[in-house]
Model the fold of this input.
Amino acid sequence: MKLYKYLVDYNYVNSFDLSVLKKALVLPIKADGIYCKFFVCKESNLKLLDLSLIIEEIELPRNKIEFFLSDFNLRLDLYNSSESLLKQKEINPKLMEEFFNKLLDKALTSRASDLHFESLENSMVIRFRIDGQLNSFYIFKKEFFKTISSYIKMLSKLDVTKIRNPQDGRFSFVNVDFRVSTMPTIHGESIVIRVLDNLNVKDDLESMSFSSHIIDSFENITSLKEGLVLITGPTGSGKSTTLYSLIKQLNSEDKKVITIEDPVEYKIEQVQQVNINEDIELGFNSVLKNILRQDPDVILIGEIRDAFSLSIALQASLTGHLVLASIHANSSIDTISRLIDLKADRFLLASTLKYIVSQRLVLKLCACKSGCVLCNYKGFLGRVCIAESLVCDNKIKSFLMKEDFLIEIENYLKQNNYKTILDDGLNKVEENKTTLKELYKVVSS
Done:
């Protein structure tokens, strides 16, 4: 059962003692004088409420009921504010600002990476993406979407009247930057706010929860003067965070560090960050063509997306520059195959490629192990990095010249007890940092 399908009457919930609702493990939905609706779970005890109305029960997982009730006072506050705003002919700027600031503060304290504002058929829902998973936090009347969307657009310097075309904007709140994307849908609009929090980028690589052998690889990478280093993995695997953290380690007064990003997500002091903007003819290819004229020591390419960007990366790393980049691939070996598919010159590849680090993010067990306020009653709090690091030594470079290079590399790595990303994940399971179920969600056996 999806919680957002039902518009909860917060005032009806508030008519009960909150401590009794928590003890009974039930969540009131609404009542009309004859009937009343309740969300219940297997452990619920409605007898504790002494109800005189005819009860309709709708089953909901226990952790969702606990999650809703744990934060009820803020939910009630936001609901009452939304009702007040809807009753006004013109938006009260102060009340709207207070509402939105409370929402952002909740998102930040919840460690949300994205906020989703979605207009549905009969309601609107606000969802937070936490640790890679979307959670429905607040449900309001459908009419409220227009009010909150107008405020977000105004804050982001977007066209409030433009609802049939996508828009992109930005704003800041308590020293945190936010990126805004709007998209028209069949029920109105969808607005997604990405949290660009520099605190997620670590100064200390050891604090990134990687295993010791991966940390050793990163330390070797930061001591390189030239060559190509690739960070691989699917979308949402933490590649950007790893690249930014490496750049922060490499950044110093005696080095020129320049990045090519689409878009720039985190600002780093003293690093020259180029934000790709096709509208002003600052395209990816044109920046890549001219990047070496900037006399860089270290170049970060946000993503190798085609043969052209790969050729520039290889040429730059061959001429005395350290190039860091991300690329979409499932493993370190798959990355080599992808590079060949992108028409990489094998000699250039053998001459420049230094490291390939393939990574994933897997949910980390909360200390409670079952569910508490801190982990939103999910049993997991935060994520842990699992990875594999392929050092491109002389043997691997020689294999690149052969037709059956993939088989040769695989056999060589097996003979040398290469630690795969799955091996690293299994170690994290043994250390009680995650579970097998969560591991196999992100890594195939």
The chain has three domains: 1-60, 71-196, 199-442. The first strand starts at residue 26 and ends at 31.
